[in-house]
User: What shape does this take?
Amino acid sequence: MRKKDAASTGARARKIGTLLAATALTAGLGVATAPAAAAASPCWTNGDNKWWCYNVSGAPVYGWVGDNHQYPDPHTVVGYMYSNPSWFWCKEDDQAWVGGPHSTRWEMTIADNGQLGFMKDTAISSETDPLPDCYQ
Assistant: This one.
């Protein structure tokens, strides 16, 4: 290869490299400044004291401790919820740890087998803040 052709090829390679680097940087900036994922859509009501929320199909519904319906029992499954969305009456905060954005929140519902109980907030993908408190 002649000296002039080698210099020309090197110049082209540098231009292509610069173009690729600029493209990668621009793409990277686009990703870095992309907006955060949208928040979960909230639960909704039809005015009938039931709140509808999207949930994990097949999620367990837990009973309560002793005779007190105020305290969910994370060790006793009374049924499962296969519907999605499902309805809930209210939310109960400051109870047994469940994790997620509302780390101690449970929602009162009726399992598909008719048993009253609580679903863990981590099994519900809708934002549960709009639900009323079970015990005020």
Summary: The radius of gyration is 27 Å. Strands lie at 44-45, 51-53, 59-64, 72-81, 86-88, 90-92, 106-110, 116-120. The chain has a mean pLDDT of 78.
